[in-house]
Amino acid sequence: MFRFSYRAGQKMLCLALAASLAVPVSAQDKTPYREHSGVLPDGTSWLIRVPENWNGRLLRDLDFAGWNHLPGWAPRYDDLLARGYAFAGTARHPVNFWQYDPQREILNLQTVQDTFTQLESEPDMVMQYGCSGGGLDSLASAEDYPDKIDGSVVLAAHTPVWIMNSFLDGWFAMRALLAEDFVAQGLGQASDLTVAGLPNAGAGGDRNLDAIRASWKSAIENAGKTPEGRARLALAFAIGQWSPWMVEGTDLPDTSDTAAMADMVVKSAMRNAGHVGGTYRLAFENAALGQQLSGNEGVDYAAFYANAAPAMKQLVEALYAEAGLDLQADLATIDAEPRIAASDYALDFWAGDGRTTTGELEVPAIRIHMLGDWAIPYSLMQGYEALVEQAGTTDHYRQALVQGTGHCDFTAAESSVIVEILAERIETGTWPEVTPEALNTAAAALETGSDARFVEFGDWRVGAYNRPWTPSQ
């Protein structure tokens, strides 16, 4: 009943607004296009653009109406429009930070798609396209809402419970390993290094988030000054299955250069100290009425370390040898720490359709992620690959790793080539070759004016992703 009445109301208002706002538009030095725009009943803005050379293919995107003009995003949109792809998308709602819900986002995109059909015509092919939260919308659409799309393009996708647990693991390990020296150096109390029950997260307390961030920056800076501290930071990154390379504008060190890798870990830890507990944590928790969706009861952190990427194990073991530390003793220290419980209420909320992923794909999806993504660990991609294998939907799924830093900072070449790859899969029923070499070659042939940076996982492939979660768990 809710879905029917909500979408019906959206549809009526969309039609009224769109009919009055459809006008021919031509961007200077860009592909000429027709544009329609409006606002849905819940206050979400939407935008449609149809190039004059429309190829009959429509890309649905959570962020097209809000971010199509941003320097990091515009080249991707412009290139696809020039290739004849139309876009129908939304902007993030003004109160998204307090009422985030990917399920609602997907239903809104379905309404905008219906509006597109009524104002233009029925597309020959519809692909869900999106990055970050839009990437989750792409995966969830391919699993839970496949009736209106033919496939999904997935860039840097998060899955809320997964990402919050992965971040909790690293922060939890850092607190266990760094707190003693933090206190010994007179920098504060161990309780200052908060990792859960953070402000505006459904828990009380009189310390504000800025003070918690400052304490963590002091702890990380202090750790970075000593061989022992650097080794322990690296161990926390390995346990969390985080990339050690999270700082934009830097080069990935040779993994055999222990000192350079350790320096990068320290810089990356400082970079993420502004997001204690994990990026977008507050939005995820606020969506579930402030309840925490991450927990680590029953977790064996020694086993989690065993799953670390070989590149990180090599680094940790070299740094522990240099510092003269006992790795097994430190793993035991982490495992001995009191545990944190997730809220059942939060997990029930995130178990809903569109809010998590299970690997049960109904239409094809192709997913890419940057190794140096500071907002979402690249290792989530491997966890999803394992779920797809368990679900028996491997023919629907392909993925690739990009050697780059930043979040959603993909080039036009990387974006357009996977759209074209997916379109070919939908048309022919067969995946083209998607090895890094094949993707880079295909991207170069598109002549987007940008480079593609697809690489093998190599020593960055984790033994197994530590934190998959599905509603059945």
Structural commentary:
- The structure is a single chain.
- The chain has 473 residues and is of the alpha/beta class.
- It folds into two domains: 264 residues, Alpha/Beta hydrolase fold, catalytic domain (Rossmann fold, 3-Layer(aba) Sandwich); 187 residues, no CATH class.
- Helix content is 45%, strand content 13%.
- It is built from 17 helices and ten strands.
- The chain has a ten-stranded mixed β-sheet with strand order 1-2-3-5-4-6-7-8-9-10, with helices on both faces.
Helix-strand blueprint:
Blueprint: H1 2-21, E1 23-26, E2 32-39, E3 45-51, E4 57-61, H2 64-67, H3 74-82, E5 86-90, H4 102-119, E6 125-131, H5 133-144, E7 151-155, H6 160-184, H7 209-223, H8 227-240, H9 258-272, H10 281-287, H11 301-306, H12 310-323, H13 327-335, H14 344-350, E8 365-372, H15 380-391, E9 397-405, H16 412-428, H17 436-446, E10 454-455
Parallel strand pairs: 4-5, 4-6, 6-7, 7-8, 8-9
Antiparallel strand pairs: 1-2, 2-3, 3-5, 9-10
